[in-house]
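Posting this for the archive.
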Amino acid sequence: MNFITNIWNHPKTSAAGLLIAVVSIAGVLSQQGITLGKAGTGTVVTLVAALATALLGLLAKDPGAASQQVSKSASQQAKLGALMLIALLIPLPWMQGCTAARVAQDIVNWTPALQGAVATVDSTAALLVPADAPIFAAATSGFDAASNLLVAQAKAYLANPSAGVLAQLQTQIVTLQQQVNAALLQAAKIVDAASQAHALAAIQAVGTIATAILSLVASVSSKAAVAHMAAQSGVKLSMVRPYLDDERAAGLVAAHYGEPVELARVQVAKAEQAEIGAGF
């Protein structure tokens, strides 16, 4: 992820370099007669080249004797541009592998964090008021078995990324996701504010990892398989969305991939949107 750090630390240079590359590639494509389709009275290639050239012009503007406030605003805009540039280059870190083997390894890489999150769930009941502990324990009782089976299947898929093992992995990640979503709805019914906060935080940690693994599994699954997985999801993500903490999820993903929290925030949001769009 070193190149992500470079983009983040040098946003203007990175953006300019990308735009120059776009203009250069567009020029080569035009020379070869490759248009990528029509765009108005021109072609997609010429439109992209024109937009890239215009953006380069904006980047080249000298702010001169701008005030400190304007300079700070420009810096913030540059950082935002870098963030969006990174998000475009790597829409989701857990979907960057273009082969089953890469995705399988990424799934396995998540499993220690999943096991740690489930262990935290197991110890969270002790932090709740006595009346709430049984509710929480009942809601999360299936986490250990479901996560252990998912870890085993993830390792099996890494060793043998076949269609049969993938089908088992598809079923198991949906099983865990559904248990997490149902548990979130139950935890939201806890009346004591402190107990509810502890419960939701612990369950969400498992849920964030489940979302990442679900995205990975979906990335190597056919559209029909994803549709079948979504059809098995009775408790939809949109139903538990009000109980999720975006900053907590972004922090977990950022720590796992060693990337800026701002980038992780965008990626988590895009993952959730993609899953909701797919019917989860």
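The radius of gyration is 23 Å. The beta strands are 38-39, 42-43.
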